[in-house]
Automatic annotation (TrEMBL):
Ca(2+) binds at T36, D80, T83. Its cofactor is Ca(2+); heme b. PROSITE patterns: PEROXIDASE_1 (PS00435), PEROXIDASE_4 (PS50873). This is Plant heme peroxidase family profile domain-containing protein. Keywords: Calcium, Disulfide bond, Heme, Iron, Metal-binding, Oxidoreductase, Peroxidase. Belongs to the peroxidase family. Ascorbate peroxidase subfamily. It comes from Pinus taeda. InterPro entries: Haem_peroxidase, Haem_peroxidase_sf, Peroxidase_pln, Peroxidases_heam-ligand_BS. Substrate binds at P5. Disulfide bonds join C42-C67. Signal peptide: none annotated.
């Protein structure tokens, strides 16, 4: 876990962690698409849904209904709420709509240098799949 950025990471920390592994910004954004499948524990996204402003308010509220401000740390939510068991590009569409589950995910689309890559992948599943591979 020493080389994996925590879910509270900002973009600078994400870039640094991936760069330390010899990966580019594009590769970082593409590989983050692995979050199209899987779940996260409440303890890992609680801060994002209660404290951040770069999250869709209705989405945050729906998550708060399942993840209280304290306790229930092990409750799970899908990283991609639309299609949690299908490998495709909805993860990026969620980020564009400010519906990233983890703070670190939403950092990829937050008025920053990686916005254009997220937008590309959200519109072109073939490009995402090629770059992910």
């Amino acid at each position: 876990n020493n080389n994996i950025p925590p879910p509270t990471s900002d973009l600078a920390k994400l870039i640094s962690k991936f760069r330390a592994q010899g990966l580019s910004k594009r590769e970082m954004v593409a590989l983050s698409g692995a979050h199209t499948i899987g779940k996260a524990r409440c303890v890992n996204f609680r801060g994002h849904i209660y404290n951040d402003s770069n999250i869709d308010k209705a989405y945050a509220k729906s998550l708060q209904d399942r993840c209280p401000k304290s306790g229930d740390d092990n409750k799970l939510s899908p990283l991609d709420y639309k299609t949690p068991t299908k490998f495709e590009n909805n993860y990026y569409k969620n980020l564009v709509a400010e519906k990233g589950l983890l703070h670190s995910d939403q950092e990829l689309f937050n008025g920053v240098s990686t916005d254009s890559l997220v937008t590309e992948y959200s519109k072109n599943v073939e490009l995402f799949e090629r770059d992910f591979t």
